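RETRY 2/3 - previous attempt timed out on the joint model. Re-submitting the same 905-residue input unchanged.
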Amino acid sequence: MRETEFNVGKFFAFIFVAIIFLFMISPLFEEGSGLKLDTTLKDIKNRISYFHSLKSVKESERILQNYNDFSRYREIVDSAKTITLNESKDLENGSANLVTSIVLDYRGFDTLGELLVLFISILGLTIILSGLSFEKFKEPSFLQITGVKFITPFITLVSIYVFLHGHLSPGGGFPAGAMIATAALFSLIGYKYNYTLSTLKIIESKSGFLIVFLATCGLYFTGSFFGNFLPTGKVGELFSSILILIIYSLVGFKVGAELSTGIKTLYDGEKDANRQ
Amino acid sequence: MNYNPSVLLIAIPVLSSFLSLIFGIYNKLLSKIILVITVLFNLIFGVFLYNLISKNGNILAVIGNYFPPFGINLSITYFSISLLLLLYLIFFVSSLIFVVKKDERADKISSLLLLYLASFSGILTTGDLFNMFVFIEIFSIANITLISLKGNGLSTKGSLKYLIITSIGASLFLFGTGFLYGILGTLNLAEISLNFDKISYFSKIFIFLFFLGSIMAELEVFPFNFWISDSYSGSKNFVNILLSGLSSMVALYIFVRLFITIFGLPAFTTISYSLPFNVKFLLPTIFGLSVIVNELAALSSKNVKRILGFSSASSLSLILLSISTGQKDGIISATLIGISVILSKPLLFLSSHQIMKGIKEKNIDSFVNGFQRNPFFSILFIIGVFTLIGFPLTPSFYGKFLLFILATEKASYITLITIVVIFSITIELFYYFRLIHKLFVPSETKFNFEKTKKNFVYILSGLLLTLIIIFFSIKPYFTQNIVEKITDDVFDKSGYIKSCLKSGEK
Amino acid sequence: MQIDNRTLYIFSFIIFLIGVYGAITNRNLFKILISLSIMETALNIFLVSLGYISGSKPPILSSGMKTISPANINISDPLPHALVLTAIVIGVGTTAVGVGLAIKLFNHYKTLNINRMGDKDEL
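RETRY 2/3 succeeded.
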């Protein structure tokens, strides 16, 4: 079909999409009564994450137990204490990065699920492409090999820094894993430091096992899955929240190994060189 | 009641899925053993939790020592644990069938199956909306991989279609979740259910339609049912069992939990009117149409697996139709039909696979002279068909009968439901009896098949399913007791909220 | 210049619908997968903009913001950031599986057009 021709299918698709658009923006311009999506969000005090930010969940729970009604938490927003960098200590978790405290402590179960999604999709990729092997495009040139030799150690070093400082600064295990996978991609391009899929499989399954094992240890020590049973320390120091540090390091290894497996599988197929 | 160790229903399968990969390096048999042991553990622990819930009411399990609504929690009710037990049974049958087959990728597939187990346990027990989304994603990726296991063009195409549909559905689900968080400031299901009535008119429509679209994509309902034809006929036998008996029931659970317990449909007279526009006519129309379309598709296809796939989609739509009538009796009949679908669909897939064994083409002509070749599985097939259609004394009979009575006494949409039910039963009778008739036709042309080898696991699991069906049929008071408890639990909005948010006292 | 949240929401809706339009009209498998990724990106923009408060600081205690207290809290909502982190990883996983399936289909049918993928012995 030439492009100048009037395409009926595309026209109807456009109409369909336009109708959905009108429908989607209707709640934003509504003037009736009732709770609505904020057009200009002014305050986070009516969100649940306010308590996560001020690390005052345990304190609020203690107050709410007297009411025997946990849905009245908005009445006690002012009961939280001040948190100061490098001074406050022994809080619920010692992470200075509030996003990390939500990701690995308050909503750690979601992060476990997220790890499982990545794990299962890479596992699925290796199952789907099992037995296939692709041809390589080109032999790497001298420049590629030298550049890869030069740059790979630095990328690995930065990624270690990123996952060790996940509770203090932006970053953490997932970006660090992506960086490790970039290093793996470089080493594939300049094939000197090649790796095998079976090694990666051992790394990812062992670190995944350790993460779930630590979470189950929480069930044994504190009576709740993902419970924090290690000291939390002073906010803002490197060894402040030990459990988050350990879990984020393991996440870094696991994500790095998984993404490298994915890249390698898509690059040369699932067949390993050492597997007959 | 607060019982934190119930999270082991999810944690143990996840742990053993990693273990299965680690031990699979040394021996593939070890990972299969780990799979079977874990399923048995979940089954036994599930029975334990069932007893606990029957005695003490809903279980709340907090994660990370943060009580809801601050942290994520699991809240297990009678409905979820009883459905979970039935699904574990189907999963056990299907994993047994997987275990006896030889596969080079056995360690990876058993790890995948364990994550599948963990994900549907998570969906059925979680009390947090975003957590449910994460588990749905694990579940659908596991389904995609399982459909593509056979590795030919048809199965890969089917799984790609499934991937596109489910990722659009997941996007809609996440949009709805984000909207709810933006409006109410919380992700906890109990608190959403408490405050849902306060949301404004258009936002409610937005949230309702987005969640409906996402769940319909998972549920094989009419506009989204085109992936069935490839994914059922292209996939392996144990995957068929999982897809028909388990995967659709999980999606059905999400529908019931979200739309009845959490949001509250307006058509339901017993609970509050929370949705603004008239769902009373919208939902029965969609689902009734879906029943008819799926039945016609099943009637017109020649491939046996495809017939069974479309038939399971149509019985699912019938369940949805009876839920959307909005009466308590509707839910009861939906539960009855649901029990018979969960038990009979795996039986049908299993026995038809055994009847057609050794014949290359898998269409209806390969059923010819099946009774002489394989009398045992032919009898199982006939039992399965009778259970599904609603032979007197089976749960499905009571369900369809109740639905019929409901449709005739209520004047508003009497015509639609009656027509749909009669139509579906007639068409189902027609194509299933065509298959049964083929079983007894003596073969005119000689098929080139070797004598079918008796397979112990197939016989065992077929007998297990048949015995459970017979048990449900000859003990109607037992069945009635379970079904009434489930119905009460589905409508118990305040009890759900209370078990999550008022658990402060010890 | 101040951007209010409504503008961000509308932008994310437009990007989402571009993805939907692409997924409906394209016949090439890779273009469909790219459209799905566009939809996921739009979702991430929507989720981030749910937590955006104009003029607020990032939710990290550092030398720029040493204390937070109920009286003095000027941060954007950290919970949507955590949700987006999860959503991004899920999107990566789905895309990886989709690309693997597309490669396998290309090996089998030698084409990426979904209309030309059909076997003679299918029924």
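Chain C touches chain A through 53 residues (CB under 8 Å). Closing ticket.
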